[in-house]
Amino acid sequence: MKRKRPLVIALDGRCGSGKSTLSRRLSDTYPCSVIHMDDFFLRPEQRTEERLSEAGGNIDYERFEEEVIRPLREGKEWFEYRRYDCSLKRLSKTVRIQERPLIVIEGVYSCHPRFCGVYDLKIFMDIDRQEQKTRIQKRSGDRMLSRFIHEWIPREEAYFDAFCIKESCDILLDGRSFPPVLVSCQEAGG
To answer: What residues does each domain of the chain span?
Structure first.
């Protein structure tokens, strides 16, 4: 982190595995900017059958590339993007990202192959299915658990499988406890 440019980390993995918790802890501990992939979900007008059938297609990867990846590659000292607000179903608040020694891009789809060239380190957080359901239910309630089980988890799993996301990450963490347990570590970039 003493380099002249920031260390950029992708923190991908299964919903309920602790990605948001870990990113909060990192930002509490280090000079860090956190970017949430949830801010880049597709807007309603973008949700075509064709787009949603793509592995990883329910993220606005074009906007993410333009508003986050491009400024990171260009070494911008700061940049802005607008968050997608799920409750309003539209873009809302502008988020300003300052260059800090550590930049964490947190959330499912952060390791999409379209973005990986910018990362110094890719982390996958895993969790067993029962613990995943328990956490989602506690966090979001029964109605949302059903949506996760029937809609979002299958899409995430299709993305993980299509692009071998877990296998392509440098570090695998088991998110059943905090701090997460290191399961495996590959040589970065390998």
So the answer is: 7-185
Contact 42, 104 (CB under 8 A): no
Beta bridge partners of 148: none
Helical segments of the chain, H only: 19-29, 49-52, 61-64, 70-73, 129-147, 153-162, 165-168
pLDDT (tens place) for every residue of the chain, 190 residues total: 456 678 999 999 999 999 999 999 999 999 999 999 999 999 999 999 999 999 999 999 999 999 999 999 999 999 999 999 998 999 999 999 998 999 999 999 999 999 978 999 999 999 999 998 999 889 888 888 888 999 889 999 999 999 999 999 999 998 877 767 677 777 544 4
Neighbouring C-beta atoms of residue 175, cutoff 10 Å: 25
Question: Which residue do the tokens 């940049």 mark?
Answer: 79
Question: Could you tell me the CATH superfamily of domain 7-185?
Answer: P-loop containing nucleotide triphosphate hydrolases (3.40.50.300)
Q: Where are the beta strands (DSSP E) in the chain?
A: 7-13, 32-36, 78-85, 90-98, 102-106, 121-126, 171-174, 181-185
| Sequence-separated (6 or more) residues with CB below 8 Å from residue 180 | 18, 22, 125, 173, 174
132-151 exposure pattern, b = at least 16 Cβ within 10 A, e = fewer: bbebbbeeeeeeebeebeee
CA–centroid distance for 68 within its chain: 13
**Structure tokens that stand for 105 in this block:** 């891009």
